[in-house]
Design a protein that fits this description.
Strand content: 15-25%
Strand order of the largest sheet: 1-6-8-7
Radius of gyration: 17 Å
Shape: globular
Distance between the termini: 38 Å
Number of helices: 5
Largest sheet: 4 strands, mixed
Order of helices and strands: EHEHEHEHEHEEE
Number of strands: 8
């Protein structure tokens, strides 16, 4: 979920993430409609999840008590990328199927393993690391018709040049563009001729 200017911080609720003085937590709430709900139900199917520490902490405090809304979230494996959390940290041991990853090599090993799809939600700093190391296979964007100015961004300084191919797109009745992209090799250049 991103704004037109690429902000992905705290779309879900008023107290989700106010770090950095962010004032618009819950900015996506007024844009839901039936079509958006159908797309989200498809994306909430069971998977495994790779999360940055901040997103993991927010989720670990919420989803264990609200799994009825998101079937499979508590059963899926949650991989948290953190240099500060340990395997025996109460936050990690308190949410079943949670695993701590410490290095980019750990992420690469996970990416190359057999198993469920791995989804990344939120996790703006982790996303920058994944882009920097060319570890993003697919983008599932929900682009909202608003700008937020400041806030955590989807694309930052770590983003490498890469081509993506549009695989699916729809626009909701509230103007949210839902666009799915798959990695499609290197950037190709050329010239525009009249």
């Amino acid at each position: 979920m991103i704004s037109l200017d690429g902000v992905l911080q705290a779309p879900g609720g008023p107290k989700e993430d106010t770090s950095g003085g962010f004032k618009y937590s819950g900015w996506s709430a007024t844009y839901n409609d039936e079509l958006f709900g159908k797309v989200m139900q498809e994306e909430l199917k069971p998977a495994d999840y790779l999360l940055g520490r901040n997103t993991y902490q927010i989720w670990a405090g919420y989803w264990p008590q609200h799994g009825d809304f998101w079937p499979g979230i508590n059963e899926g494996t949650k991989y948290v990328f953190s240099k500060t959390l340990g395997k025996k940290d109460p936050m990690v041991t308190g949410w079943k199927n949670s695993v701590v990853l410490k290095t980019v090599a750990d992420i690469k090993k996970l990416k190359n393993s057999e198993g469920s799809d791995i989804q990344v939600w939120g996790s703006s700093e982790l996303i920058q690391l994944l882009f920097k190391h060319d570890l993003v296979d697919e983008l599932r964007l929900k682009i909202y018709p608003l700008t937020l100015g400041k806030g955590k961004k989807l694309f930052g300084n770590g983003t490498i040049p890469a081509a993506f191919r549009l695989t699916e797109s729809i626009v909701t009745t509230k103007g949210v563009i839902i666009a799915n992209y798959k990695r499609d090799g290197d950037v190709k250049t050329g010239s525009i001729e009249v």
